[in-house]
Amino acid sequence: MVNIMEPKLFMVLLGCKPEGRHTEQHDVFFGIGHSLAELKQDMIGFWPEAKAKLHIDAWREVTAVAGHQLKIVPANKQNDQHAAKLFFINLGGYKKGEFDELHYKMLIVADDLAGATRTAKDTAFYKHTGFEGAVSHIDDKYGVDVDDVFEIADVLPVSVKHKFSVQIMPFSAAVEDGMQLGYMPLSKV
Hints:
The chain is of the alpha+beta class. The protein has one domain (about 10-189). Helix content is about 15%, strand content about 40%. The protein has a 4-stranded antiparallel sheet, with helices on one face. Strands 6, 7, 8 and 9 form a 4-stranded antiparallel sheet that branches. A 3-stranded antiparallel sheet has the order 4-5-10, with no helix packed on it. A hairpin with a 2-residue loop joins β4 (about 65) and β5. The longest helix is centred in the middle third of the chain and has 9 residues, at about 115-120. It starts with 7 loop residues before the first strand and ends with a strand. About 25% of the residues are buried.
């Protein structure tokens, strides 16, 4: 039985149409709290340029990934340095005749960055979206082309990093979390 008072990791797809843009833009926010509503100010602080136009397009509580159970623990609780880590990867790819770059966002549990990258490159999306001259790729980190993936612990808000850490434990009965999809203004959170 899950204690509803325990904090959880949330993955949120934020969207907005910033001033001067022609199309809606998106970014992924990760936060830890007891509810989505508790993270509202952190989301606004994450994307201040969005101002009142910020909304949620998708979100999920992240409690299980690929046969691993995730638990939020106090930051001072030591984790095994050799323990698996949680990575976020944003795959990009192309289809002939479509004027778009398609994306597939995924969470991966792996021992290191190399393992996470290998897992991502083994997905059907990576293998089947792309062609000569427009190959599939792992999209850049933080909007600049310097890195391919990031560890969730690195992108949590600073205030959260001081309070919590994510503990990952193998658990064969762990069932992937459901996603909530659809436009939701922050005023409804």
